[in-house]
Amino acid sequence: MLDKPKPIPLYLAPLRPGKDKQKKMFVRVSDIPPEGMDVEIEELIPPLDPAIGEVIPVVGPATGALSLEPLSKGVVRVKGVVSCALMLCCSRCLDSFISEVELEVNELCAPLPKGGMLQGELKDAFGYIHGVIDLTALYTSLLYSVLEMKPLCSPDCKGLCPNCGANRNRESCGCDKSARDPRWEVLEEIKKQLLGKDVA
Ligand SMILES: [Zn+2]
Ligand SMILES: [Zn+2]
Hints:
The chain is an alpha+beta fold.
């Protein structure tokens, strides 16, 4: 990367002018020197609003560092790691918990053509317009892919009791732990029959 830190030409614009301190991080592609540049990320980002499911609060600022490497024809490779904390809901016990997310960023950015669609080798690239890359939108879009996984508050989360709904991480409800899923009974029956045949 760069040996000496250089002043970074960043264009910061309020997300909702006059309303809050959330900023968006923009980089003008013509300001990226041929040898590339590093950008430090530290900004508050709005809650994630996935197409399916609840709004996910973002706890504290997103932080990290991204390196921008100019390639040909306005294409820029953006690489680095951005971390932030999300308030997620455990898929097993339904409790809310804070999850530290480390996003590995390695994306190509390309100017959107007039039709608005990137094609060929660049079809999966992150499009930008007016010569300006919106870094916030770039890594926020990657955050949504994290949400597609089933989150767990801890790898050994005990989940909810299927009988009374108690959270087994916090209380022992006293329900019969040997009570089995009725779906196993069919297999038990088959097992008995097979064993019976062996004996006969
Ligand atoms: Zn859980
Ligand atoms: Zn129970």
